[in-house]
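Researcher: Quick test of sequence recovery. Tokens follow.
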């Protein structure tokens, strides 16, 4: 048998710009992808904030600089966001929280904060402690601020409550509830004043306005307080406290203001004693003499932390209607009776 013919390999192709090596072709294929990522990551900061499209430096192998498409007039993001809230232990103190979140990548210092809203007659202001409060990037901080007088409607006007504030915004929706004017200082020491929209996601401003306005109208008719004494039942499982109602114009027959005590609400700590039901539908006039209304109580809970973790358990809600406006008037029992209630709850729970 003859030997197999020898195959001759074709000569190698010349490497030209039009015919690059395989590895080179793969590298060039990646260039547009890398440029696309760079463009996609370009945010509305720097030149884009002024409406000028930023230029991306050319990548080796590309045909030139790539321009990101940014709408003209794009605004710089606000340095902080603002929202309102209220901690449970501040309910009776009429203090709310201005919660600020730093949206930048650098630490800011807030030196002043004022929130203006149609729900209150003056700005809700935070008092600067010392040199201000630092806001680290991406973190939220709460600034406690006392509430000023509520902006209440005159008698006969629409209240703007029942879930809607005076600007027509539904509470708890996260809609704008006002504006916060802030004085901020950056790391370089430069100070700027900015105004940002404030949201009220939990309806803290609306609720406080409603309660303050109801209290204002109710207190024009009568004062409400609790006597410091507490009387326990024979078995120690229930007790009685006295709600004292003092009309503002006792004996003055010309005083025609009235209100209705529609009912009493329970708390996280106290509930109604079925043997001594709470009053409801009690009519109170400004010209009546003082009256004492007994309230029968029993513990609403007996877990180990009921008393230790109590915040608002001795803030008694009275459901009233005054001037055609229904609402809730919250009456603090005071420090002396509060201590006696805590002792009673602890002892009553121990008997169960």
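Model:
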């Amino acid at each position: 048998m003859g030997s197999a013919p020898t195959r001759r390999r074709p000569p190698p192709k010349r490497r030209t710009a039009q015919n690059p090596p395989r590895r080179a072709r793969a590298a060039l294929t990646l260039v547009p992808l890398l440029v696309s990522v760079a463009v996609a990551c370009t945010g509305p900061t720097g030149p884009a904030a002024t409406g000028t499209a930023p230029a991306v430096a050319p990548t080796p192998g590309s045909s030139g600089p790539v321009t990101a498409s940014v709408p003209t007039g794009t605004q710089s993001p606000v340095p902080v966001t603002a929202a309102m809230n209220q901690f449970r232990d501040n309910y009776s103190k009429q203090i709310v929280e201005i919660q600020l979140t730093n949206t930048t990548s650098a630490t800011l210092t807030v030196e002043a904060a004022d929130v203006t809203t149609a729900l209150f007659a003056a700005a809700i202001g935070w008092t600067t402690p010392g040199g201000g409060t630092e806001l680290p990037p991406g973190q939220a901080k709460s600034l406690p601020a006392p509430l000023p007088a509520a902006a209440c409607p005159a008698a006969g006007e629409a209240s703007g409550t029942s879930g809607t504030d005076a600007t027509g915004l539904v509470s708890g929706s996260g809609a704008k509830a006002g504006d916060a004017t802030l004085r901020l200082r950056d790391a370089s020491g430069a100070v700027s004043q900015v105004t940002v929209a404030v949201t009220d996601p939990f309806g803290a401003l609306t609720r406080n306005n409603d309660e303050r306005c109801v209290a204002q109208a109710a207190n024009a008719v009568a004062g409400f307080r609790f006597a410091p004494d507490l009387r326990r039942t024979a078995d120690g499982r229930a007790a009685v406290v006295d709600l004292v109602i003092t009309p503002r114009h006792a004996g003055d027959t010309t005083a025609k203001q009235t209100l209705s005590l529609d009912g009493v609400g329970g708390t996280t700590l106290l509930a109604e004693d079925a043997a001594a039901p709470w009053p409801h539908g009690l009519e109170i006039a400004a010209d009546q003499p003082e009256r004492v209304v007994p309230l029968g109580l029993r513990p609403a809970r007996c877990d180990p932390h009921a008393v230790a973790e109590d915040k608002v358990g001795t803030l008694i809600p009275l459901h009233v209607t005054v001037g055609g406006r229904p609402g809730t008037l919250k009456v603090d029992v005071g420090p002396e009776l509060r201590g006696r209630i805590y002792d009673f709850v602890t002892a009553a729970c121990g008997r169960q």
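The longest helix spans residues 22-40.
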